[in-house]
Amino acid sequence: MASREIPSGTIFEPFRIKVVEPIVRTTRAEREQYLDEAHHNLFALPADRVTFDLLTDSGTSAMSAAQWGAMMVGDESYAGSRSFARFERVVRDLTGYRNIIPTHQGRAAERILFELTVHPGSVVPSNNHFDTTRANIEHDGGLALDLVTASARDTSSNAPFKGNIDLDRLDDVCRTRRADIPLAMLTITNNTAGGQPVSLENIRQCARIVHDHGLPFILDACRFAENAYLIKLREPGQENRSVAEIAREIFRLADGAIFSGKKDGLSNMGGFLALDDDRLAAEARNLLILTEGFPTYGGCAARDLEALAVGLEEVLDEAYLEYRIASVRYLAEGLERAGIPTVRPAGGHAVFIDARRLLPQIPAAGFPGQALACELYLAGGVRSCEIGSVMFGRSGPDGTFQAASHELVRLALPRRVYTQSHVDRLIEIGADVASRAATLRGMTMTWAPPFLRHFTARFRPAAESAAPLVEAGRAGRGNPEDAEEHP
Ligand code: F0G
Questions:
Q1: From the first residue on, what is the mean pLDDT of each consecutive set of 10 residues in the chain (487 residues)?
Q2: What is the model's pLDDT at position 392?
Q3: Whose CA is nearest to atom 11 of ligand 1?
Q4: Distance 267 CA to ligand 1 centre (A)
Q5: Which is nearest to 144 in space by CA: 228, 220, 91?
Q6: Smaller CB count within 10 Å for the chain: N or C?
């Protein structure tokens, strides 16, 4: 796709709005009550109590008129549907892979790929594995190894490609653990490291190293278009190429991809596993039939495949990508001006607030990210997601506590959903919270399940600013209602 002339002046949403959905407005008193009822866990809030829902950019895109139109002509035949043929054509044209296998979302592709390739003792290196990728690898007995570049650790560094993999460490692991590695991966963009892109040069070198060791190279490509656009913006020598051309090169450097269509597929559901290896693909199709469905629909309705096929073409429109990346940057810069420290530079799909820097008075055991996420909700009805010691820290039943490496709060921007005035309001809410940052207190976790605790853990505001540890004996077991009865 030819690159368009960059307009001077305000970068505006490159769409008109044809269908609208009301958003709720609530008072602070109501939000206080709702947050109490949700045990200070934003995952437990009914969505109609949320004004700005920035929990995730996944499955929350607004679809275009063309996507809705395509859904109406979806061919729901069980086998050999016309919609599958269209989907396969679009994905193959973009990626170049021989075998295109639809799945209901990204993690279904992960589950099938790793069930076939990962065994107890396997090692799967990547820049950073997303939670579900890691969980699927660990479920099959493997080790999900993160080898992200050292600059990712410094949230204030403006290095342009903090999503990169450390090539020396990758080469080292491939040499020393060669027999245990079924495949190597790269996640583009690197969600765990703050939505940071991976450079084309890093992807090329990664492919060379992995292939020199005779190993397959698989992409977790769900934000490939944002990554390709950031390459065009930031990587010397790439500025005159189209994003589609860069994206095609990226896919062709690898041997396959797992893909969640709920991000850069601009769809509410769908995904795929794409592989060059015919033998592995045949085995994957057999597993697909067991749990997802016949290979021409995977876990999707044909109309989902239609929406995804159109979304994959629309997402490469450079006017869209310019607006998309500009919106994320606009939010990050506005929050910074308001006194909220963010992970720099702004990445592709979200702004990550550094809660440790904003709330230095709250120790990791007082969950500063959770305290901030709750305060953003109280101040303006914003639903965000803690990515810190609630999600990645560990607390034993005896009260021992291990903090996460970062205390972040992610404000993920759904695609084509919020306009600039929404973002301006978010910045005002950020300024209000920043002005009261020194008075905020930590949180006490009153109950947590044994794993993936961020989804269902319960909290209450800590009595002192130096919050106590997770209450001994409560976290990690039991029924949450019991914890409530004996506070
Ligand atoms: N890989 C990455 C990098 C992701 O960010 C996600 C999902 C997946 C794989 C799994 O895809 O949800 O379709 O099964 N990320 C969402 C998020 C949930 O909020 O970041 P899925």
A1: 61 94 97 98 98 98 98 97 98 98 98 98 97 93 97 92 98 98 98 94 98 98 98 98 98 98 98 98 98 96 98 98 97 98 96 97 97 98 96 79 93 97 98 98 93 92 60 49 43
A2: 87
A3: 106
A4: 13
A5: 220
A6: C
Q: Tell me, what's the pLDDT at 193?
A: 86
pLDDT of the residue at 485: 33
pLDDT of residue 48: 96
As separate numbers, helices (DSSP H) first and strands (DSSP E) second, the chain gives 16, 16
Find the angle CA(43)-CA(348)-CA(102) to the nearest 5 degrees.
75
Q: Which of 258, 24, 304, 292 is nearest to 118 (CA)?
A: 258
Long-range contacts: 13-16, Cβ < 8 Å, 24+?
Answer: 13/323, 13/416, 13/419, 13/420, 14/317, 14/319, 14/320, 14/322, 14/323, 15/64, 15/320, 15/416
CA distances from 154 to 21, 46, 77, 182 (A): 39, 35, 51, 31
**What is the position in ligand 1's atom list of the atom closest to the CA of 261?**
13
CA of 275 to the centre of ligand 1 (A): 19
The set of protein residues with a Cβ atom below 6 angstroms from ligand 1 is 56, 58, 105-107, 130, 132-133, 187, 191, 220, 222, 260, 262, 271
Nearest Cα to Cα of residue 100 among 115, 111, 114, 86: 86
pTM of the model: 0.94
Work out the burial of residue 326: count CB atoms within 10 Å of its CB; fewer than 13 is exposed, 13-18 middle, 19 or more buried: middle
The number of residues in the chain equals: 487
SS3 187: strand
- Residue among 353, 409, 387, 429 at smallest CA distance from 156: 353
